[in-house]
Amino acid sequence: PNPIPSPPPPAENAGLYKGLKELGELVGSYQGLRESGRGSTIVNSIVATARQCNLDKDVDLPGEEDDTAELTLEQRDRVVGRVYSKIMEIESRLLPCGLH
Fold first, then answer.
1. Separation of alpha carbons 42 and 44, rounded Å
2. Is the pLDDT of residue 1 over 70?
3. Contact call for residues 23 and 87 (beta carbons, < 8 A)
4. Is the dihedral of CA 86, 88, 91, 93 positive or negative?
5. Other CB atoms closer than 10 Å to residue 90's CB: what's the count?
6. Distances in Å between the alpha carbon of 68 and those of 8, 60, 85?
7. Contact, 56 vs 83, CB < 8 A?
8. Could you tell me if 47 and 79 are in contact, meaning their C-beta atoms sit under 8 angstroms apart?
9. What is the model's pLDDT at position 8?
10. What distances in angstroms separate CA 3 from CA 6, 94, one per listed residue?
């Protein structure tokens, strides 16, 4: 028997899901490249995507005019860590139990 397909997310959440998924992927690539030259570029993308998902209201992000290349590795780790824990919190609220 075919499993019953789950209904698509409400339209206003669809963009948020996509943004969160993208953020999760960026955080994953940051973890692998954080000490390389690309680390700050990825953090810039994480911060920009976090803003698109309106996470800047809940997460302390660097200012839009700040270049994360000027942050130390430890400061970048903290920014990424805060964004990541917010993603986890939102996903646990958005996704029904058992679909994580």
1. 5
2. no
3. yes
4. negative
5. 18
6. 36, 13, 19
7. no
8. yes
9. 54
10. 9, 21
Write down the pTM of the prediction.
Answer: 0.78
pLDDT-derived band at 22, boundaries 50, 70, 90: very high
Report the amino acid identity of residue 9: P
In this structure, what token pair is assigned to residue 68? Answer: 């994360």
Kindly list the distances between the CA atom of residue 76 and the CA atoms of 18, 39, 65, in Å, as whole numbers in the listed order.
23, 8, 15
d(CA 33, CA 100): 26
- Give residue 46's pLDDT: 95
Query: Which one, of 84, 70, 82, 80, lies nearest residue 34 by Cα?
Result: 80
